[in-house]
């Protein structure tokens, strides 16, 4: 006689291999892995950039035949949507050729329209897929830095910004503020925090001992995803292999996993804490965050008073950038660009 419970058990047993085979298609993974080919591509890029930077700015000076070259700011745009504020940035950069370079890492899995205008034309670099709260954002930022290092030896500051960022001052104000000290004594503007209440949860997101021995808990740091690094610190970032092996590991607790907010502050805190300001130049409002995202400003909130407030800082420097803004903020921002934002 046919035993129904046994038949059900046997059917379930046979189903397990099919579940494992088809589950990824039925329930696609939210985690974006960094493939071995992508990792090897990045390593090759980093090596080329490192070798090209061995003689640094000194070599660039000798090749240009001058002792007073004009240093540049490399603006690194990290995006997975259209650059909605491209017209505002166009106006920001206008008239300052020779003092900046632009590099854009656009997620290839997103359908992103190339912004019109001369400034952003041809600025897109070879990019790979990115995902929030994953090591892919670290890879993208490193890829941008390596490309900028390789492209122009006079790139002296590396400003990482997002598609939701806007400038809070004129280009002249930002440029002159960054280059007030004598090279090579520039500092990197990166937030580095160590005493936040949630640090332990973030530290053990990959497992309680996963970060050891390279990163003990007392050396683990937290900070803003967006920063302005000096050339020497950009080189530290692309040369690193030791900490990257830890931070690229997948997280067991995704709710506490924000590698892009930990890797750069931890690495630079361990390598050169005195060479960093420990604060960021990008203003972000976390008091009204939603689902891990900071406060998003809406068109009705755009005003001169908001710009003045966002500039305010507890540090020596005024905030120079701010995020995040909804795409439809472009029109009201353009209305106050010349008379407020770019008037210092």
UniProtKB/TrEMBL annotation:
Tell me what organism the protein belongs to: Capsicum annuum (Capsicum pepper)
Q: Which GO terms describe its molecular function?
A: glycosyltransferase activity
Q: Report which superkingdom the organism of origin falls in.
A: Eukaryota
List, alphabetically, the GO terms of the cellular component aspect. Answer: membrane
Signal peptide coordinates = 1-21
UniProt keyword terms in alphabetical order: Glycoprotein, Glycosyltransferase, Membrane, Signal, Transferase
Query: What is the protein's name according to its record?
Result: Glycosyltransferase BC10-like
Q: Does the keyword Iron-sulfur apply?
A: no
């Amino acid at each position: 006689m046919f035993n129904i419970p046994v038949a059900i058990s046997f059917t379930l047993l046979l189903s397990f291999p099919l579940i494992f085979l088809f589950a990824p298609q039925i329930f696609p993974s939210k985690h974006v892995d960094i493939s071995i080919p992508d990792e090897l591509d990045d390593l090759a890029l980093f090596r080329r950039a490192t070798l090209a930077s061995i003689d640094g700015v000194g070599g660039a000076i000798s090749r240009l035949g001058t002792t007073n070259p004009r240093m540049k700011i490399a603006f690194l745009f990290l995006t997975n949507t259209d650059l909605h504020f491209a017209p505002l940035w166009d106006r920001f950069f206008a008239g300052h050729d020779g003092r900046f370079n632009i590099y854009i890492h656009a997620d290839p899995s997103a359908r992103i329209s190339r912004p019109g205008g001369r400034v952003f034309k041809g600025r897109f670099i070879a990019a790979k897929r990115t995902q929030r709260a994953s090591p892919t954002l670290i890879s993208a930022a490193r890829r941008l830095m390596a490309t900028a290092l390789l492209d122009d030896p006079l790139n002296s500051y590396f400003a990482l910004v997002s598609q939701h960022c806007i400038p809070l001052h004129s280009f002249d104000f930002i440029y002159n503020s960054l280059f007030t000290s004598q090279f090579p004594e520039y500092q990197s503007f990166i937030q580095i925090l160590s005493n936040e209440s949630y640090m332990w949860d973030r530290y053990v997101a990959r497992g309680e001992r996963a970060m050891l021995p390279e990163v003990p808990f007392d050396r683990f740091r937290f900070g803003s995803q967006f920063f302005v690094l000096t050339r020497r610190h950009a080189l530290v970032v692309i040369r690193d292999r030791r900490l990257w092996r830890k931070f690229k590991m997948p997280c067991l607790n995704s709710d506490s996993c924000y590698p892009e907010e930990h890797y750069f502050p931890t690495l630079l805190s361990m390598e050169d804490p005195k060479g960093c300001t420990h604060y960021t130049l990008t203003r972000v409002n976390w008091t009204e965050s939603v689902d891990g995202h900071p406060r998003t400003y809406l068109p009705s909130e755009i005003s001169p008073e908001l710009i003045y407030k966002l500039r305010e800082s507890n540090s020596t420097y005024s905030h120079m950038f701010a995020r995040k803004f909804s795409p439809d903020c472009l029109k009201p921002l353009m209305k106050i660009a010349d008379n407020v934002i770019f008037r210092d």
